[in-house]
Amino acid sequence: MSARTHRTRMLGAAAITVATLTLAACNNGEGVRDEGASAGSTSTSSPTADGGTSTGAGQARPADSASKGSASKGRTGGAAGSSGTTGSSGSSGTTGSSGSNDSASVHTACSSTSTRMTATVVSRPLNHLLLTVTNTGSKNCDLTDYPAVQFDEAQSVPPAFEDSKPQAVVTLAPGESGYASVRLAAADGSGSNGFTAKSLTVYVGKGASAAHPSLPAKGVYVDDSIGVSYWQSTMADALTW
């Protein structure tokens, strides 16, 4: 055996002896001890997203079924409560909005108590009187049909020109005016039973109270060709008849 081979064996034996002594020193309680596979299989539990706990190597342990059911009900109730379906409907204020617009949405028949009326003699058409009704109330009112006019102590009211009937009822918002014309006498003088009237009574709508607009001091001449237009929304439409 050569000297080189002998030295190699001696160095290997020395290394094994040193490793053995080092391991023995660790096992005396001063070093780290290998607990084996059982140490890895035991760990502290931690909560998981689904309400269970994590044990061992990542396996989830379901939470108590009763607790889980209660939590589920709680979450469901909370979602329903937060949706606020009833509250949202109430907050929309549909009924409140309708109520706040009563003055604009509620219609009543115009009457002498909620309107102001004037009677004006116009130059064109000839022998015509223009009736103007202004809504002085706080709500919309409707001018229905045509005015029933009575000069002095006449026992009957003049007929309406049926062709003047509008397609829709004339509605007056507060402050707005409606119009009707009265043909007092025939322009060509063909009328009969004429007289000069000094007073005028006008009934606005069916069953309404009477208005008494003033006439010129000298009065107006009226004959049996008298007629009235239906209520119109514009002065021009009223004076067409």
TrEMBL record:
Lineage: Bacteria, Bacillati, Actinomycetota, Actinomycetes, Kitasatosporales
Residue ranges annotated for the DUF4232 domain, each copy included: 110-232
Stretch forming the signal peptide: 1-24
Pfam families, alphabetized: DUF4232
The protein's name in its UniProt record: DUF4232 domain-containing protein
Region Disordered, annotated ranges: 33-118
Compositional bias per record (Low complexity), positions renumbered to this chain: 37-74, 82-105
InterPro entries linked: DUF4232
Keyword Signal part of the UniProt annotation: yes
Keyword field: Signal
Compositionally biased intervals (Polar residues): 106-118
